[in-house]
Amino acid sequence: MEAEDKKYDKVVNLLKKSKPVFMDAGTFSDKIIRILQEDKSKVSLQELIIEYLFGWVYIGWIRRSMVACAMLLILFFGYQQALILRRINDLSDQKVNNGKVVMTSLTDEFSSKMMLYRISAGRLPGGKISISEKEIDKLVKSINRLQVKYQDIIYLIENDPELKKYIESRMNEGKKK
Amino acid sequence: MFFTLHLKLRLISTKPQNNLIDLEIIEECRKGNMHYFRKLVEITSPFVFSVALRMMGDEPQARDIAQESMITVWKAIYKIRSADSFKTWLYRIVVNKCYDQLRKRKRNPEVRADEKTWVFISDKIYEEPFTEMENRETVQIINLLTEKLSPKQKAVFVLSDLEEMSNEEISSITGMSRTNVKANLHYARKRIGEMIEKHL
Predict the structure, then answer these.
(1) Which of A100, A129, A167, B102 has the fewest C-beta atoms under 10 angstroms from its C-beta?
(2) DSSP states of A115-136 as a string?
(3) Tens digit of pLDDT for each residue in B83-137?
């Protein structure tokens, strides 16, 4: 085993002692420099054009300004969108009268029809409004509820002389005006 | 003043060739100074060539690898943050290029077994006084000894036993763990030892 190791060491030492000799180191470096310079000149025209067109984007303060502008534009866009949405919501709540057609955003069909009839003041003939049985039931129920409330109010007024007196005085004032 | 002195400090290493790499040269190369790069090529190409030749066992291929490595160095030297890591980085480039070539060659292996080479080795190890061998002869011996080794084993053997690097350095160059380096080196030495025992 020792003899084997000795032989191994001798062979390795032989290789270690004989360092590879690099011939023509000068020519080698010249060649590398030439290759690099050729590479540089090959892309130079393309690089020049790109540099001329977009080189300014690498200037620090321009880059920072552009980032700031982009942020401002994004914020402005967001603000505009919010504003537009708000205006759309406002408009959808408004009634538009263009002469013959009245548009509203009321969702209840019956109440919108009633509203139309009231605000159009004769422009829209009543006969054109079709009402379903269900809607009539709803109307009757609503009238009944109002009647009950009205009777309650009358009962309250009758039982409270002070309130009765106050209401009468207010009503007289209204008549005088 | 201190900064200039600091720049001119030479890298501390046990390898004589590494002492030649000046921090200033690397800094200038990073700035794109070709004049300094030429200097860097002149300094580093002998040991780049040495590793490539010992790994590849073919002079023209070793020259090509050295050339490609130096071009890669120029293109990527901006990545080097400190001159201390330069040597390891350079070796890594060379070894990786050699790996690529050896893998290609693996698909088309060349037969090199030659009894005359064993006789030559036998004569040479007992030669007195010792005369340095030519590249061709060195390559012939390395090829003969490492023909049965994998590219990894070959790399570990060359870097450890011929370039005299520590396991730690080899690990950072090849990307293998230290245990892996040791295992590969053990196997490489064993195979080479067996061949020597058989023929010498």
Answers:
(1) A100
(2) HHHHHHTTSS-GGG----HHHH
(3) 778 888 999 999 999 988 888 876 555 545 567 888 888 888 777 777 778 888 8
Whether B71 sits inside 8 A of A29 (CB atoms) is: no
What 8-state DSSP symbol labels residue B110? Answer: P
Q: How many CB atoms lie within 10 A of CB B124?
A: 19
Give the C-alpha separation, B158 to B178, whole Å: 16
CB B167 within 8 A of CB B132: no
Residue of B nearest to A5 (CA): B193
pTM attached to this predicted model: 0.58
Contacts of B196 in chain A (CB under 8 A): 4, 7-8, 11
Q: Is B192 on the interface with A (CB under 8 A)?
A: yes
What residue in A sits closest to B140 (Cα-Cα)?
A15
Q: Which residues are registered as beta bridge partners of A102?
A: A97
Residue of A4, A9, A16, A19 to mutate, interface with B, max B Cβ within 10 Å: A19
Contact between residue B87 and residue B11 where contact means Cβ atoms under 8 Å apart: yes
Question: What domains can you pick out in chain B, each with its CATH number?
Answer: 1-112 (1.10.1740.10), 114-200 (1.10.10.10)
State whether ipTM is beyond 0.85.
no
Residue for token pair 């060349």 = B110
Asked if B132 is an interface residue toward chain A (Cβ–Cβ < 8 A), one would say: yes
Cβ A35–B71 below 8 Å, yes or no? yes
Residue A47: other Cβ atoms inside 10 A: 12
